[in-house]
Amino acid sequence: MTELYKTSKGTTFQCDVTDRICLQFGDISASFKIKDFFIFRRTVKTINIHEMIFNLSDDYDFEWIESPKSGIAQKLTLCEIVQLRDLLDGTKFSLELNSVLHETLGTLVIR
Amino acid sequence: MKDLVRLRTSLKEEIEIILNAQCKMEAEASNKYLAMASWLERNGYKQSSDYLYGQAEEERTHFLKIFKYINDVGGTAITPVIGEVTQEYSDLKSVFETALQSEIAVSLSINKIVAKCREVSDFATEEFIMWFVKEQREEEENARRALELFEVIDVNSSAGKFLLDKEIAKIGGKE
Ligand SMILES: [Fe+2]
Ligand SMILES: [Fe+2]
């Protein structure tokens, strides 16, 4: 397991044995196939946080986050969503940086 | 550390995004043609309405072609959300003016995809999208031909509308 990104609220790892991304964030502990990880990130990114900020109705205090294949179905607060986004963005950056290194240096060079 | 991103897909994220946007544009084009066909049908232009019903189908196949490509190369094709399209037109000519404008917009968008593919060295997608470059050349030509007919046929003459309806419908047939 290689650590991909860490914030004060959570950590992500890459597992080269299972080819999965592991996520630990608050109560959430889940692993994703890479494709599902990006779909999950997209889900979290598309939440309308402005709506959550400005709409005073109780319905907007929390947002449901779901990733059916990873067993995630969780209510998150605005603050948690922003923190989760931060973690997911950082993870994506690490993944892409690794990809660029592979492309530039050649797979065999990187250990 | 394995390169999981590349193992999953050859698509760079920026290309995946513009391809999904193009899917949406093709699906929208399909709906626009459908609305135009319906207007023509309601207003007695039966033959050119059949032509545009056909165009609507064709745009749907363009949409699916890109949609499936995204998934085939390991990306994630996203079902697009399509907004309202114009339902009412002032006259026959304005329908085909809108059609040409819409095709030009699609051509520009396709060109941007080609440029982006070259920028990020995605030659597989460039090769795929070149089919659309050729297709757009034909689509623009057809749309221009429809408007050209308004110059040679007087829409206000006795059988003008009838004749235009008939001649526009032939554009599709010559392909
Ligand atoms: Fe098209
Ligand atoms: Fe078209």
Can you walk through the features of this model?
The complex is a heterodimer of chains A (111) and B (175). With 111 residues, chain A is an alpha+beta fold. Chain A has one domain. Chain A contains three helices and six strands; from the N terminus they run ββββααββα. In chain A, strands 1-2-3-4 form a four-stranded antiparallel β-sheet. Chain A is elongated and about 55 Å long. The two termini of chain A are 13 Å apart. By secondary structure, chain B is mainly α. Chain B has one domain: Up-down Bundle (Ferritin). In chain B, helix 4 (92-119) runs antiparallel to helix 5 (123-152). The model of chain B has no long low-confidence stretch (mean pLDDT 95). Classes of the chains: A alpha+beta (111), B mainly alpha (175). The A-B interface holds A 2, 14, 16, 19, 21, 34-35, 38-39, 42, 95-96, 98-99, 102-103, 107, 110 and B 1-9, 13, 74, 76. Bound molecules: fe (ii) ion (2 copies). The site of one fe (ii) ion has 5 residues of chain B, from helix 2 and helix 3.
Number of strands of chain B: 0
Strand content of chain A: 25-35%
Q: How would you sum up the global shape of chain B?
A: elongated
**Count of alpha and pi helical runs of chain A:** 3
Distance between the termini of chain B: 53 Å
> What structural class do you assign from the helix and strand content of chain B?
mainly alpha
Order of secondary-structure elements of chain A: EEEEHHEEH
Mean pLDDT figure of chain B: 95
Write the CATH homologous superfamily of chain B: Ferritin, core subunit, four-helix bundle
Oligomeric category = heterodimer
Percent of residues in β-strands of chain B: under 5%
| Greatest contact between two chains | A-B, 18 and 12 residues
Just give the CATH class of chain B.
Mainly Alpha
Quote the CATH topology of chain B: Ferritin
The profile of the biggest β sheet of chain A is: 4 strands, antiparallel
Helix content of chain A: 40-55%
